[in-house]
Design goal:
Helices cover about 45% and strands about 15% of the residues. By secondary structure, the protein is an alpha/beta fold. It has a single domain, classed as Rossmann fold (3-Layer(aba) Sandwich). It has a seven-stranded parallel sheet, with helices on both faces. It is globular and about 45 Å long.
Length: about 250
């Protein structure tokens, strides 16, 4: 298995939630982590709190020049690049009758296209020592939530992309996998203006009983699964469901 100690890892969307939690988890185990995000103050704050093993670079993963800066920063900080975690995402939702095409296309650009293009830039570095690429999927591809069709469609695209890239990059000894989270507290819906912080907390509490294990997850628990896929050298094209049993569809019938 690959060793986390000394590994260079680039995490997009590292300013909060799963991205920040994974950065802390891996940095504490000796990885040289570079986090990115659009909010400079936020990623700088996270990196400072984690310590010297974490470096922040502000930028928009949907911007080509910024993507190139992200790769260069990770290579400089880590002495190369062994792992890319495509975590950055946005949210757009609503009834199918009310959706706007430009907003759907923007969501696909952020959630799917940006990660594809960043992955393309990373390959030349990842293939040097046999690296890992992780996409962050969603339970939205396993359970149907009315009104969430744009977001679910982007995450479904990532599941397909994971398998295609695993086949495409296998001869370069690059493993490509996807982690599929259940409900985990993040700022995604708050940033999208869908909920206040109080509404988000209430929603997390309300959905807890839908999980077989009776609670929502934590970023650290997602990081454990990500670590496994980073280290595993004979696992590729897999979607690892880490959802506390949310996708089992518990009911009282």
């Amino acid at each position: 298995m690959r060793e986390i100690e000394g590994m260079s890892v680039l995490i997009t969307g590292g300013g909060s939630g799963i991205g920040a939690g994974t950065a802390r988890y891996l940095a504490e185990r000796g990885a040289r982590v570079t986090i990115t995000g659009r909010r400079k103050a936020k990623v700088d704050e996270v990196a400072a709190a984690i310590g010297a093993n974490c470096h922040a670079v502000a930028g928009d993963v949907a911007n080509d020049a910024d993507r190139r800066r992200m790769i260069d920063a990770a290579v400089a900080h880590g002495g190369g690049l062994q792992t890319l975690i495509n975590n950055a995402a946005d949210m757009y939702r609503g009834p199918i009758t009310d959706l706007e095409a430009d907003k759907i296309l923007n969501l696909f650009n952020i959630n799917v296209v940006a990660g594809m293009m960043l992955t393309g830039l990373a390959v030349a570095h990842l293939e040097k020592r046999g690296g890992a690429i992780i996409f962050i999927g969603s339970v939205h591809t396993l359970r149907a939530y009315p009104g969430a069709s744009p977001y679910a469609a982007t995450k479904g695209a990532l599941a397909a992309l994971t398998r295609v890239l695993a086949a495409e990059l296998g001869d370069k000894k690059i493993c490509v996998n996807c982690v599929v989270p259940g409900a985990v507290p993040t700022e995604l819906n708050i940033r999208a203006g869908l909920f206040t912080e109080e509404q988000h907390d209430a929603r997390m509490a309300a959905i807890a009983h839908d999980h077989a294990l009776g609670r929502v997850g934590t970023p650290a628990e997602l990081a454990e699964a990500i670590e496994h896929l980073i280290r595993a050298e004979w696992t590729t094209g897999a979607s690892l469901v880490v959802d506390g049993g949310l996708s089992l569809g518990l009911s009282n019938f």
